[in-house]
Amino acid sequence: MKHANLSLVAVATMMAVSVSAQAGDTEFKFGGYVKTDVMFSDYSNGAPDSGNLSRQFYVPGTIYGVSGNGEQVVDFQARESRFNFKTSTDLDGHKLSGFIELDFMTHADGNERVSNSYSPRIRHAIVSFDNWTVGQTWSTFQNPGALPENLDFVGAAEGTPFVRQSLVRYTNGGFQFAVENPETTVTPFEGGSRITSGSGMVPDFVARYNFKTEGGAKFTVAGLARQLNIEKDNLDTQEMGYGVSFTGVIPVGSDDIKLSATAGDGMGRYMALNYANAGVLDENGDIQTISSYGGFASYRHWWNDKWRSSFTVSGFKADNDVALTGGAVNEESYSGYVNLLYSPVKPLTVGVEYMYAENTKQNGDSGELNRVIFSVKYVL
User: Fold this and answer.
1) Could you tell me the CA-to-CA distances from 169 to 140, 145, 183 in Å, in that order?
2) Residues contacting residue 93 through CB under 8 Å, at least 6 positions apart
3) Which tens digits make up the pLDDT trace of 186-239?
4) Which position among 4, 34, 130, 150 has the lowest Cβ density within 10 Å, counted as fewest Cβ atoms?
5) Strand 121-129 with 175-180, pairing
6) What residue stretch is flagged as signal peptide (predicted)?
């Protein structure tokens, strides 16, 4: 037994030496933040049940409420807190890096009764080698750098592309080209529950160009081409979809303006957290694409080096063919935000935000959400 213990110690020592040697060529970095939110919400049609996605953050299409429930609720959560780990290695002039990040949002596996325990979920998991990136991360069609500084998790949900998925991306200067994971969502003929399909062998294709101006403004233009594909039950149909997105971050002295405008035919899940589907089935079982467009604008003003505010408006609209979709599908959504944030020291931010949102279905049914958020965020 003594010899076994010595062997284990020897193995552990060799492993430690090996890790130390690797650490000499590799940079390791831990990051993330701890964020606690207190949200006071008023739902016009009755609040969703505790644990519902709309009780975690604003998702267009989830605020129609539950008839019979109270309209006013309060939620305390620390689920947006996240942890990430990054490595970077220089290999004879080639750069190899890896990044993985987890948080605790969207899961319904916990509850608020005793321990508020929620499973971690994967946000990002990528490997990059020189100009190539492989793994799960932000879609190339989205520019996360243009998102407003809001306390709500997304911040302008209906006005921006917002997708994380697995992809293979090549970057050369300001140009980016990617093949990404396909997933089709359509509305049945004359309405009904969403049909989701991962059928087909054709990935989604994205091309993007990032550029800067002499004044320091940053812009992106991105194009999306995808095949909508349904092969299930008695359905076998395909159709092409496309989208174009423009984003900008424009400095105005110490302040800045962030904006986004996106339009397309058959974009579906790429916009507004899948508020509208990419297409609808006609009477023959063929896919007819749904056109949609959306955008946001946000102005951030620094009152001084510790205090700042953002003012944001966001909107989205889908052009449904009511003869095919019926009247119970989502048509338009918009929201507005105003906040006041204070950072006594750089890693710590305390803030309050008011948001208003309204979602309207094609038949005129609507739901409203008024929410006040108090947050404390500490960047690790």
Assistant:
1) 8, 18, 18
2) none
3) 999 999 999 999 888 999 999 999 999 999 999 999 999 999 999 988 899 999
4) 4
5) unpaired
6) 1-23
Identify whether the C-beta of residue 75 lies closer than 8 Å to the C-beta of residue 52. no
Whole-number Å distance between alpha carbons of 169 and 101: 19
Averaged pLDDT, 137-142: 98
Residue with tokens 């089709």: 184
Tokens representing 66?
Answer: 């539950």
Is residue 8 within a helix (H) or strand (E), and if so which, with residue range?
helix 2-25
How far apart CA 378 and CA 81 sit, in angstroms, is 9
pLDDT of residue 111 exceeding 80, the answer is yes
What pTM did the predictor assign? Answer: 0.90
What confidence tens digit (pLDDT) does each residue in 12-43 have? 333 333 343 345 589 999 999 999 999 999 99
Q: Determine which helix (DSSP H) or strand (DSSP E) holds 242, and give its type and residue range.
A: strand 235-252
Q: CB within 8 A of 169, min separation 6: which ones?
A: 132, 133, 134, 140, 176, 177, 178
How many percent of the chain have pLDDT more than 70?
A: 94
Taking Cα atoms as reference points, which of 248, 243, 194 lies closest to residue 217?
248
Cβ burial, residue 61 (10 Å; 0-12/13-18/19+)? buried
302 in Cβ contact with 255 (< 8 Å): yes
